[in-house]
Amino acid sequence: MSRSIGELREQLRAELKSAPFRPSSREALLILSRVLGLSEAQVLAHPERPVEKRDEERALDLLARRLCGEPIAYLFGEKEFWGRSFFVDRRVLIPRPETEHLVESVLDLDLPDAPRLLEIGTGSGCLAVTLALEIAEARVTASDISLQALQVARRNADRFGCSIRFVLGDLLAPFRASFFDAIVCNPPYIAECERSGLALEILDFEPETALFAGPEGLDAYEALFAELGERAPDVPLLIEIGASQAESIQRLATRYDLDVRRKIRDHGGFDRVLVVISPA
Q1: Is the pLDDT of residue 5 over 70?
Q2: Residue 51 maps to which CATH number?
Q3: What tens digit of pLDDT does each residue of 253-280 get?
Q4: Direct distance between the N- and C-terminal alpha carbons of the chain, in angstroms, rounded to an integer
Q5: Domain residue limits at 156
Q6: Shortest CA distance to 128 belongs to which of 156, 104, 147, 98?
Q7: Taking a C-beta distance cutoff of 8 angstroms, is the pair 177, 230 a contact?
């Protein structure tokens, strides 16, 4: 005899509640909504509705993966960013809400018509795709050192019908950086000493190369600043930073004769985006 939506939901809720990493009990609702093709409201409104055996098995399979720590975004193969649903899997970092401040910061720039934009370390491509969609006639180039990440980014560009040039390469090495009107980068910025404090669903599933950047989390910034001063005078570089890194990164920028022209705070009041310029 088939179990009802309500019965299955209670099982999922109970098992999630017992997980050591304390996932939200709402995830039971999310899993059922996904498997049954119903809205969350419909799942709640019809607890008596029977669940087909194949759907029950799919829900329990997703539950088992979640109990092993796999993030919901990877279970579902998507994550929302700037109001759009992007494909993600374990080849790329899961987009974070904080990165939307990079989009806002680019939109606030005084850009020319049909601006030429470069994103370094594109990952899922959510940032490059969003800029291509939000800025009229933008000509967007996106790079990554991971071919697998570029495959995901290209899939998202195709999903939204964006014409983006994708390049395999490290930082500014493949480019004549002065060609661009703005450069955007959300580099890895977690310090190695913070590794033990990360949630297992991050540490065990998301790509390390997109997370860690040396003993203090500054290695990627230093490499980028070293190249920026040589290659791109007067081109604004917009970077996402960790919540406590603003002062360290500003000192690092000064060491490479770069100016931090603007700091943008996130909703928690932390400096989250820096606009850096290499004076001509």
Answers
A1: yes
A2: 1.10.8.10
A3: 999 999 999 999 999 999 999 999 988 6
A4: 75
A5: 82-277
A6: 156
A7: no
Q: Is the pTM of this model over 0.90?
A: yes
Residues 28 and 135 in one domain: no
DSSP state of 170: S
Strand 78-81 relative to strand 84-87: parallel, antiparallel, unpaired?
Answer: antiparallel
Tell me, what amino acid is at 152? Answer: V
CA pair distance 67, 20, nearest whole angstrom: 9
| 230 pLDDT above the threshold of 80 | no
Place of tokens 């661009």: 180
Indicate whether 139 and 261 sit together in one domain.
Answer: yes
Strand duo 237-240 + 271-277: pairing? antiparallel
Same domain, 171 and 199: yes
User: Same domain for 51 and 169?
Assistant: no
Is the confidence at residue 2, as pLDDT, over 90?
Answer: no
> How far is 152 from 126, CA to CA, in rounded Å?
10
Query: Given the DSSP bridges, would you call strands 271-277 and 259-265 parallel, antiparallel or unpaired?
Result: antiparallel
Tokens of 207: 């790509």
Please state the rounded mean pLDDT for residues 192-198.
Answer: 92
Inter-residue contact 229 to 256 (CB < 8 Å): yes
Summarize pLDDT for 31-53 with one digit per residue, the tens.
999 999 999 999 999 999 999 99
Residue where a domain stops, chosen among 37, 68, 99:
68
CATH number at residue 189: 3.40.50.150
Q: At what angle do helices 126-134 and 147-159 cross, to 10 degrees?
A: 30
Could you tell me the two tokens for 188? 């890895």
Instruction: Give domain status of residue 95, yes or no.
Output: yes
Q: Are residues 39 and 90 in the same domain?
A: no
Statement to judge: residues 187 and 49 lie in one domain: no
